[in-house]
């Protein structure tokens, strides 16, 4: 049976070309628009250029537009969706979609590290693999996935790890959930289902701060204001903070601003294990919420989604802990 796949182009290098001076630029006409996927089997592609943006121009408001468009796709008879996206913020859009789309429909996000006319361009290849994954029966109910360089990654944990290499998307700690090989889609692991919050607005005022040796209170104090709705902190190691930040952290908590903690480490999960001044035990006792296994940018999207859905207090904590 022919699968009907919705293609949503948003821009990024996959939609760009190299000019005569070697610089990469956006195109007025998307180069993927004319690609034939005859070799991919029975698929009908319905294409929309929802944005034509470099991904550093992506915002939560635009992620919401994309999410709302995909949420309408199932009722419109689509069997899956492929989103093409710039790679710089792809991981944030992917988790936003994963957290806000509750349908079983396969949703695949892909991009490219080399633009459409560069030697060794990976755009058409990744696009074809993404369509194969979106139309595979095994992709039903897998949540949003990212397909790049023959690997299938869960949107929840995948991250860009290299500035230029085509093998840039990796899932630290857990690894990919599958591979695409010779057009065949093979899943090797499943990840736990998570709660979906189909929000229809996004709150501003959710920030991300990275901790460092000798960090003082200044950055945190600058965020201690009524416009701040929540802060994610990329803490040190297993989830610890320099002692000079504790006063500013306590003041943010006293002002009712949710503080969410992840680790700045590439692998592992932040846990409140260390019992010294600024250690995780201390931070958890203060009411800082530990968000397990997400990177800082992803935890920020999750906090933003939770707050935008109106979650507060224990509900917010439970959502972020899960
Ligand atoms: N490879 C890429 O897509 C990077 C580009 N700067 C973007 O994110 O739009």
Automatic annotation (TrEMBL):
Q: Where is the L-asparaginase N-terminal domain?
A: 4-190
The coiled-coil regions, if any, are none
According to its UniProt record, this protein's enzyme class is hydrolase
UniProt keyword annotations, A-Z: Hydrolase
Q: What reaction is this protein's catalytic activity?
A: L-asparagine + H2O = L-aspartate + NH4(+)
Q: Which CDD domains match?
A: L-asparaginase_II
Tell me which EC number(s) this protein carries: 3.5.1.1
Per its UniProt record, what PANTHER family does this chain match? 60 KDA LYSOPHOSPHOLIPASE, L-ASPARAGINASE
Q: Which family does it belong to?
A: Belongs to the asparaginase 1 family.
Name-wise, this protein is asparaginase
**What organism does this protein naturally occur in?**
Lactobacillus xylocopicola
Give the classification, highest ranks. Bacteria, Bacillati, Bacillota, Bacilli, Lactobacillales
């Amino acid at each position: 049976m022919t699968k009907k796949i919705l293609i949503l182009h948003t821009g990024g290098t996959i939609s760009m070309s190299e000019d005569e001076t070697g610089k990469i630029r956006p195109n007025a006409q998307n180069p993927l628009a004319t690609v034939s996927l005859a070799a991919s089997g029975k698929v009908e592609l319905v294409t929309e250029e929802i944005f034509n943006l470099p991904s550093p121009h992506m915002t939560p408001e635009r992620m919401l537009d994309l999410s709302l468009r995909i949420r309408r796709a199932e009722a419109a008879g689509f069997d899956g969706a492929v989103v093409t996206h710039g790679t710089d913020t792809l991981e944030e859009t992917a988790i936003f979609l994963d957290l806000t789309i509750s349908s079983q429909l396969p949703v695949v996000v892909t991009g490219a590290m080399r633009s459409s006319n560069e030697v060794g361009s990976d755009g058409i290849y990744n696009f074809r693999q993404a369509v194969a994954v979106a139309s595979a029966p095994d992709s039903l109910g897998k949540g949003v996935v990212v397909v790049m360089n023959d690997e299938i990654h869960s949107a929840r944990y995948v991250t860009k790890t290299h500035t230029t290499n085509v093998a840039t998307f990796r899932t630290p700690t857990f690894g990919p959930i599958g591979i695409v090989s010779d057009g065949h889609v093979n899943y090797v692991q499943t990840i736990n289902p998570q709660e979906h919050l189909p929000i229809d607005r996004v709150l501003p005022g959710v920030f991300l701060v990275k901790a460092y040796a000798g960090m003082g209170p200044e950055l945190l104090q600058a965020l201690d204001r009524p416009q701040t709705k929540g802060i994610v902190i990329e803490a040190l190691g297993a989830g610890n903070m320099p002692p000079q930040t504790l006063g500013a952290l306590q003041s943010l908590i006293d002002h009712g601003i949710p503080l969410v903690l992840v680790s700045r480490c590439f692998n592992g999960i932040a846990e409140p294990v260390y019992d010294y001044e600024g250690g995780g035990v201390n931070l958890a006792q203060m009411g800082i919420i530990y968000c397990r296994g997400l990177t800082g940018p992803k935890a920020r999207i999750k906090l933003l989604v939770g707050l935008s859905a109106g979650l507060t207090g224990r509900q917010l904590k439970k959502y972020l802990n899960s």
